[in-house]
Amino acid sequence: MKTIIEPFRIKSVEMLRMTTRDEREKLIREAYYNLFYLHSDDVLIDLLTDSGTTAMSNRQWAGIMLGDESYAGSPSYFRFKEAVRNLMPFKHIIPTHQGRAAEKILFSILGGKDVIVPNNTHFDTTRANVEATGARALDLITAAGLDPASTDPFKGNIDLEALKDCLEKDGDKVPLVMITITNNSGSGQPVSMANIRAAAKLCKAHGTPLFLDACRFAENAWFIKKKEEGYQNKSILEIVREIFSYADGMTMSAKKDGLVNMGGWLALNDEAWAMEARNLLILTEGFPTYGGLAGRDLEAIAIGLEEVVNEDYLEYRITSTSYLGKSLTKMGVPIVQPPGGHAIYVDARAMLPHIPPLEYPGQALAVELYKMGGIRACEIGTVMFGRQTDGSEKPAAQDLVRLAIPRRVYTQSHIDYVIECFKEVYTGREKLKGFRIIYEPPMLRHFTAKFTLL
Ligand SMILES: *Cc1c(COP(=O)(O)O)cnc(C)c1O
After folding, report:
1. Predicted model pTM
2. Which residue lies with its CA nearest to atom 12 of ligand 1?
3. Using a 6 Å cutoff on CB, does residue 99 contact ligand 1?
4. What are the DSSP calls for 263-277, one per residue?
5. 222, 207 contact by CB (below 8 A)
6. Residue 183 and residue 171: Cα distance in Å, rounded?
7. Distance of CA 94 to the CA centre of its chain
8. Do 111 and 232 reside in the same domain of the chain?
9. Nearest Cα residue to 78 out of 88, 67, 62, 64
10. Is 433 helix (H, G, I), strand (E, B) or coil?
11. Residue 4 lies in a domain
12. How far is ligand 1, taken at its centre, from the CA of residue 205, in Å?
């Protein structure tokens, strides 16, 4: 069967508010052409992020009612811990309110001046938490990972040669090595089991722990099952357990493959680090059996972790994302190949060659998608990265527009609608115009910048 069928039916619906093109033109103008200023109920299909936007299941909502809100020793914590341990057999499981809180605690212990933290690609909060301690965040991605046209199946892999060099030269400055699965800042590309295994071997030889930034571990496991030799007949559960068997710890944002709207954790084996981490946790998040979460949140995560490794779910999830990617490719829209797990990245600079990078082709495309169909996407390009610390500006490496797909939220026909809107935008692409920034803050300008149409 070719039809992608959602492996769920819908028990509770959330109505969308339809708007006309005229209304949307007015709304986006009043939002200074910055999609972050839009009210989300003026958005029809919200592809801004896949983080915390998951639809929970009936089982999770039932779990919410079972949440036990005891300050210490809640049964919800023990259910959460066992659910994590079932997949990731670490000794210490420390709940936090989201992924960055786990990062903050981890790098408060291991970061510092003269410290180097290698990663395939640091996610932006990870980089910020490493750098906030004075340490250096080193990205060691392979050449294929940097080439948008390469169809290598594992473009998220860490560069093993570069890692070996780093550990040989500066090993004494490296308290841990991280690998991000899937590689969010590298367009959601997966990491192979062979790469994780080889990196773990290198780390072991140098006595350096390997940690996984594992926000999308289940999506990564699905790519391994589908694309890596020797894994076709293994279950997702087996693959997930093998992935974590190579690691000494992990950070997690449960807002992704935890299938919840808020939550995260830090897990590790080292006794002394765990003790320090719990002390920091008490300072900023809460008692070790709830961290930054309510008991009901812990229940929802425990159930989400059972559901996310379901193969019917993952089949639907990854097929639906790649269906969008393939349909855009077929109509001529340039995207980062191959489609990643959680999002499709459109190469706006290639699609709109008449708009120079400093007139923000990504912003032009994102704004037009909203005007055309009420779709909200996210510019990842010169608006986000172009401002230099001295206030000057230069083109980012790429001008991309990310279409991130929330989990279990949109149906096949919503995706077909997105594709149809793209067809219209693509046909009229030569008429699109760039933007000029009329207000920007000194940092993270993409959130609050104001634009005028050129
Ligand atoms: C989202 C994310 C984080 C941070 O998690 P939050 O829950 O948003 O704090 C860290 N690493 C990666 C790869 C992520 O995608």
Report:
1. 0.96
2. 123
3. yes
4. -EEEEE--HHHHHHH
5. no
6. 24
7. 21
8. yes
9. 67
10. coil
11. no
12. 29
Q: What is the rounded distance in angstroms from the CA atom of residue 254 to the CA atom of residue 54? A: 10
pLDDT tens-place string over residues 6-47: 999 999 999 999 999 999 999 999 999 999 999 999 999 999
The answer to whether residue 64 is domain-embedded is yes
12 is a domain residue = no
- Together in a domain, 166 and 295: yes
Q: What is the pLDDT of residues 152-209, one digit of tens each?
A: 999 999 999 999 999 999 999 999 999 999 998 888 999 999 999 999 999 999 999 9
66 shares its domain with 40: no
Domain that holds residue 180: 58-307
Q: Contact, 287 vs 43, CB < 8 A?
A: no
| 100 Cα to the center of ligand 1, angstroms | 6
How far is the centre of ligand 1, averaged over its atoms, from the C-alpha of 180 (Å)?
10
Residues 285 and 363 in one domain: no
Q: In this structure, are 112 and 153 located in the same domain?
A: yes
CA-closest residue to ligand 1 atom 3: 99
The rounded Å distance from CA 276 to ligand 1 centre is 22
Q: Which two tokens stand for residue 47?
A: 């592809």
Domain check: are 31 and 90 in the same one?
A: no
CA 422 – CA 426 distance, rounded (Å):
6
Q: Which atom of ligand 1 is nearest to the CA of 180?
A: 13
Composition of the chain by helix, strand, coil, percent to 5? 45, 15, 40
Tally the domains of the chain: 2
